[in-house]
Please model this.
Amino acid sequence: ERPLRLGDGDSMPVRRWRARLRTKGFAVNKTGAFDQALKSATRVAQIAAKVDPDGRVGPITWKAVGKLKKQTAPPRPPSQLKVRDCRKGKSGFPVHATKKWKTRSIVQIRSLLGHYTGNAIPFLNDANFHVRTSYLDPGGAPAIAYAIGVNKDGTVDVFNDWTSVTWHCDGGFNTATLGIVFQGGEEGPNVAQKKVLTLLVEALRGGTFSIGNETWPKMDLPLTTH
Model:
């Protein structure tokens, strides 16, 4: 049987695949053709399931993704920030062998920009998707394309230095914004993430956000989302 692939119409097999992704925490539509958005979600799921991320759905992908566990929300919000350093290959996060981000000064950052992923799988899978595929750039991106990530359990991951101009949004706003991404799913931010957002923004605006002995400069800036 031919694998499902980009360009296939809105058929029952495509709908069943969409349903399978939704049960694993991916925010995909219930119906619709096999479009680019579904292919991207498929590739992220394949990376999570440790199969070839070709964006096509055959028996191997169907079975492997079916074994993934859906991420669940924590029972209570944290009282303080728990920060993990994931920069420059730390904590198992991949970086490109040769590519580097452009850099900027603090005066060039004009706002904090919040993102929300369309799935509830770990950020490490998104990192592999950004770096080890041509999704963002031919041959891969320098690293996962955000500065900071907030996990479902409220842990804050620092992916890149604040000086890095990551590719987290279109329209020429990468230099002017600090990208903060939340591990997603259809249910929206949970109580832990909402609490962490308040603590994180307070720390960034007050100049107290730190990783180990390193403290980031004060960013008393507006917060926007997209």
